[in-house]
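Protein fold
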Amino acid sequence: MRVLFSNAPWNEINEKGHGWRGIKAGSRWPHTMPCYGQDMIGGYMPFPFFLATAGALAKRNGFDVRVRDSIAMGESYDEFYNFVKEFMPDVVIVETSTPSLYNDLKIAKHLKEINGLLKIIFTGMHFELENEEFLYANNEVDFTIYGEYEQPVNDLLISLNSGNEPAGNFNVLYRKDGTIIKNQCGPLVDLKNLPWPERDDLPYENYYDGVCGLKRPQLQMTSTRGCPFKCIFCVWPQIIYKSNKYRMRDPKDVVEEIAVNVKKHNYESIYIDDDTFNVNRKNVFEIARLMKEQGLDKIPWAIMARADLMDEGLLNALKDAGLYSLKYGVESSNQAVLDEIGKSLDLNRVKHIIQYTKDIGIKVHLTFTFGLPSDTIEGIEQTIELASSLPADTVQFSIATPFPGTKMFDIYDEKGWINSKDWRLYDGSKSAVARTERFTASQLEGYVNQAYTRWADASIRRRLNESGFHEKFKAKIEAALPNKSAKILVLQCANYGLTQELIRQLKEMSYDVHLMLHERFVERFCHLLKEDRLHVFNNTGDFKYELLKDFASTLWQNHAFDAAVVPYSNANGCGYEEVEQVARKACDGNIAAGVTLDGSIIK
């Protein structure tokens, strides 16, 4: 039996190549991101752990399997349909999510038009998959598997292959004689019984989580599943695991999987994408010890962890084992709000650990959320101030999205705070789908935008002032360009606050400053430079060299820039190779300086 495990396309692109693309399988928060001209691959791309593990298990069970991640491939709908016609599977598993649901149902209808005998199984992060009404309403879907799905999907495949009814299978809904049968939810799988995820079918070089400047290509891993804490907004424990049980893999197996994959491909970094990596202290120490023992400490890696479960000894061991960066969830500056949402962090402990993490040279990414139930104006202001005062390398401010199927959704729905039940809006990236007692949706969106601006301004001022940056930058530029009338091209390819500060300092030195930027940033720079100093493009939003080389060549022909200045949003310039190519093309190969967010001059 031929089986296709699919992370199907999810995008909307106009004739100019502009629009958006979606992220779903592998992400705890399925979302969309802007696409500015053929930028279908790049930036954050999670590895589809459940899909790839289910595919590996199906291969072990003897099925003819393909695991296809159309999103990570940047694949169009037509390309995906052509592959289906070529492979001609008997069964297609579609990992869906709440915001991508309608998109995935349209795909399922088209697949049925391609092959009316095809069996389609929907699984993934959407609460309706366990409701009988979903199958009644969507005839194009033959089965749904809810919750953690690797073993249940394979049990269903075995039943289908043998011609048996899946009556005894866990987590499955199906049709029988015009009615919908729902089987009970089974126990969580013992992680020791699962194979390593299937990777051979997948575009290994495209999976990436930057976490403060990790390099590509990146190996993404998991060492545990679950979290014993009870945050009301956290999706995987409530919808996928349906439990707060914490399960650990054998550290030897984890490190062996890393070692085998690192030998297979030239990975430049590793991201261990656990829900909460550091729940079990003994387990963390053992992974760190084995990483160092296997020589894997030479490869930078990152984790997601709770700050209040860290201590100095644990952080020192992780640093010694090669840990480069980590993510801490803070969410709010208000202890009562944290307790209310089940986060229950000790904020004083969190501040101390964040500082210690930075002091020993581990880079820090922090997350914050606006629109929590008891948020106040004063509380959000204090959260922005806290974020701006902490020594984070990067931050994320999110709109609280009460995901259907979570306790948070139930609370907001009961209070009448849900503005829309159009599931396409539930991605937290573009707009708020809920209000609170004190805030409208638009006010929450405004606070997120304001927070990013204020954090960037405070962070850049602090870092550049603390490092004596102005004097170093001036000396570097003047050494490269002693002629004060020289033309300098700055590229808007990083946090715009950093770019603005570089432009200000270059103008103070009396240079003729120009800026190359995407059209979406014009408003932020028109007060700093005259219109004829702004060189605007719109065919890519990500400085793709092939798409910008002609534009850059024309700039050189028309302006003969003496040099370029390149700002970087991370600490080491990782991922900026194409940006630098564009800069050299526009400036006859001359980059006078490259500046990071922390005030380091790395070019």
Q: What stands out?
A: The radius of gyration is 25 Å. DSSP finds 20 helices and 23 strands in the chain. The chain has a mean pLDDT of 94. The longest strand covers residues 323-331.
